[in-house]
Amino acid sequence: MTLSVDREIIYPDSDGQPMAENTLQYRWIVLIKENLELLFADNPEVFVAGDLLWYAVEGSPQIRFAPDVMVAFGRPKGDRGSYQQWKENNIAPQVVFEILSPGNRLKEMVKKLQFYDRYGVEEYYIYDPDSNELDGLLRQEGNLNVIEEMNGFASPRLGIRFVWTAETLEIYRPDGRKFLTTLELEQRAEQAAQRAEQEAQRAEQAAQLAAQEAQRAEQATQLAEQEAQRAEQATQRAEQATQLAEQATQRAERLAAQLRALGIVPDSEG
User: Fold this and answer.
1) Which run of H or of E encompasses 124?
2) Residue 50: which pLDDT band, with cuts at 50, 70 and 90?
């Protein structure tokens, strides 16, 4: 009697190959991956990964590739050991990037193209940083077709724009901001923090000046109130003096009348 044993199919998380063959290739992979993650940071249903094995067919672990960068719309963010398409609602990554190195062979690149074309990639971008050559393919009428003009081309899915100069490739977000390295982003953040601190200092100085002006205004108000009080007191004293003068005049008139009644003519009338 023969016993059959069902063996669990293993989908390794690594193909044993390094993420990049040199620092230049690695820098470009990180640049694209990190900036795409920043671009879609607020969208929980966009998954971005670098050098992650993509298994396209359940039960066939040999049908796999690890794009340098891939983007899957409609899939949640989160850690994965590999991208097993049948566990991802059968959604294939829509956009992939490959950064070439001297070790890339034509046969391997043809196999990747066939894999991406067969299993549903919508946009495929290939950049060689050594020769500064950029190529792109876009799915049209069911197949990946070469994009004739890449300079200025905007990705339909990502919204990013490629600017291909004589020296290098530049990539821009939909809002016009350029893809930056982690170091450049850190420097920009530090500069922004410094500007914010300077603005806070200027605001504090302005607040202090405003407080000083308010104090001077309050002092001026107090001085004005004191001057008004002194003026009022002077007016009161003048009124009192007038009243005293009027009273003295009235007394003098009464005395003169009394003297006349006694037959005495006051000197002022003699």
Assistant:
1) strand 123-128
2) very high
Q: What fold, for 23-179?
A: tt1808, chain A (3.90.1570)
- The helix or strand, by DSSP H or E, that contains position 215, with its residue range, turns out to be helix 182-261
Which of 127, 116, 23 shows the shortest CA–CA distance to 70?
116
E strand or H helix that includes residue 170: strand 169-172
| Listed residue (68, 59, 113) closest to 87, CA to CA | 59
Q: What is the DSSP string of 217-243?
A: HHHHHHHHHHHHHHHHHHHHHHHHHHH
* C-alpha distances in Å from residue 197, one per residue of 132, 204, 210, 258: 40, 10, 20, 90
Model pLDDT for residues 251-260, shown as the tens digit of each residue: 878 877 888 8
Q: How many whole angstroms separate alpha carbon 107 and alpha carbon 114? A: 11
